[in-house]
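Re: [ENG-882] Designed sequences occasionally contain unexpected residues at chain ends

Forwarding the minimal case from QA. Structure tokens:
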């Protein structure tokens, strides 16, 4: 069913120019429905991890605005934007509709700068983030600009100039990265998550992938270029194939997940990660389909609540997948990596630029670069050299260290990430998985002096139990120091 001429007549009166093109648009049968199908009706691309299958206009309360929004979405859909992007347009325009209804604004002729000022107050007093407010303004600006360009209605959009800054510059009071205390708690409780989710966390926290990129990683995502391992992915924002250098420790995690998928689905499923058929029971039953992005957040936030993962103020932390990406950027910034390198590494880059980044990094860090790239020997709690590591890539060395940075003030915890909880909490000196290098010698010697001083006090006071513990700590430190000094180049 389409609108007939008598039904079109009053609608035409809303528009500044009644063009033939407008008449063709208005005869589209979709205008008789408030729910449109993204694929069947509009032919939009739907990402599996978002699953936006319908667009709902019923929340737009004014008939004239609903009609304009439908026209706007019909034109926008011809640009082949993503279904999620277009759905967000509708959500922001619905928010504006709710405001107009509250303010008793009944026609487009009543909309002026004063209305926009009041809408600004309405959004800011509703508790939404500066980024969300800025996105509301971007949508309204695009919407009214298109309406004016097409000759439907003429509303000045000058008020919106400069209102996009909230997208680029978020409120500095908001924490967009995962703080160290939360990061440490996540690591301590990681083993409570299902193994595929654990591996997903390990990958996203090292590489800073967008959530859609990790959820859609192909099963055959590993590549080896000479001695350098890389991961192949489809960049979510630009839909282009790319490769990122990765540390060898992450290769082990990815190979474990590949084996997991092949064990459960054979050759019938070609993604590295799947979904869950366990429902709300808390049980994880692997399913051969792409997980939705909000499901990943739910797993982490359920873990945060059940194991009391809090920020420094004692508030339960709310995880969002994009925080991992912001954290990787923060870590690289704090390590002295130039913004250009970070920008490129986070997928504003081409694979053949790696040598250029390496040269830039060397210019930035100078002597610190040489320190970063030097060979290291590691000893365990027996003083025996258990590992020798010579970095061959500056960026992947930073990422490798990120995998071990949630340990102690110095040294590296090489305990496998998917094992049970740490058996020697706060007793790293005695743990075989805690490895120290020659870089840690000065710290070990300082600790040895402190322990020996405390041991003397314990002896003087006759504190038998404390003497035993301090003696064990002293012996552990002496063994490590001796092993490092014997292998110091």
């Amino acid at each position: 069913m389409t609108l007939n001429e008598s039904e079109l007549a009053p609608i035409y009166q809303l528009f500044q120019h009644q063009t033939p093109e407008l008449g063709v648009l208005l005869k589209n049968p979709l205008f008789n429905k408030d729910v449109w199908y993204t694929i069947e009706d509009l032919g939009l691309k739907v990402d599996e991890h978002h699953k936006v299958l319908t667009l709902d206009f019923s929340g737009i309360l004014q008939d004239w605005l609903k009609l304009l929004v439908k026209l706007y979405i019909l034109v926008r859909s011809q640009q082949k934007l993503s279904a999620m992007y277009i759905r967000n347009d509708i959500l922001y325009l619905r928010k504006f509709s709710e405001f107009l209804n509250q303010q008793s604004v009944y026609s487009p002729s009543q909309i002026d700068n004063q209305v926009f000022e009041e809408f600004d107050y309405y959004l800011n007093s509703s508790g939404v983030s500066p980024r969300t407010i800025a996105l509301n303004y971007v949508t309204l600006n695009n919407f009214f600009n298109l309406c004016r360009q097409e000759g439907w209605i003429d509303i000045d959009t000058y008020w919106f100039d400069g209102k996009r800054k909230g997208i680029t510059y978020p409120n500095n009071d908001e924490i967009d990265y995962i703080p160290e205390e939360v990061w440490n708690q996540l690591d301590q409780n990681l083993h409570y998550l299902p193994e595929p989710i654990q591996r997903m966390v390990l990958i996203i926290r090292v590489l800073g992938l967008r959530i859609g990129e990790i959820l859609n990683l192909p099963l055959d995502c590993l590549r080896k270029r000479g001695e350098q391992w890389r991961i192949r992915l489809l960049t979510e924002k630009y839909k282009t194939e790319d490769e990122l250098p990765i540390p060898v420790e992450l290769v082990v995690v990815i190979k474990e997940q590949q084996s997991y998928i092949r064990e459960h689905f054979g050759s019938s499923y070609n993604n590295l990660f799947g979904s869950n058929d366990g429902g709300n029971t808390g049980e994880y039953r692997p399913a051969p389909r792409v997980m939705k992005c909000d499901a990943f957040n739910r797993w982490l936030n359920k873990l945060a609540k059940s194991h009391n993962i809090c920020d420094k103020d004692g508030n339960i932390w709310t995880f969002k997948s994009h925080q991992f990406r912001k954290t990787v950027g923060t870590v690289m910034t704090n390590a002295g990596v130039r913004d250009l390198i970070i920008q490129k590494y986070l997928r504003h880059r081409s694979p053949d630029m790696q040598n250029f980044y390496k040269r830039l990094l060397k210019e930035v860090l100078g002597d610190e670069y040489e320190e970063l790239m030097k060979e290291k020997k590691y000893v365990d709690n027996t003083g025996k050299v258990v590992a020798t590591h010579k970095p061959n890539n500056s960026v992947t060395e930073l990422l490798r260290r990120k995998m071990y940075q949630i340990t102690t003030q110095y040294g590296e915890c090489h305990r496998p990430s998917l094992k049970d909880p740490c058996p020697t909490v706060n007793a790293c000196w005695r743990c075989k998985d805690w490895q120290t290098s020659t870089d840690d010698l000065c710290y070990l010697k300082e600790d040895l002096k402190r322990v020996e001083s405390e041991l003397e006090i314990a002896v003087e006071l006759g504190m038998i139990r404390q003497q035993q513990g301090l003696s064990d700590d002293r012996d552990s430190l002496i063994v490590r120091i001796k092993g490092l000094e014997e292998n110091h180049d």
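QA comment: On inspection the terminal residues look reasonable. The longest strand covers residues 228-234. Proposing we downgrade this to a documentation issue.
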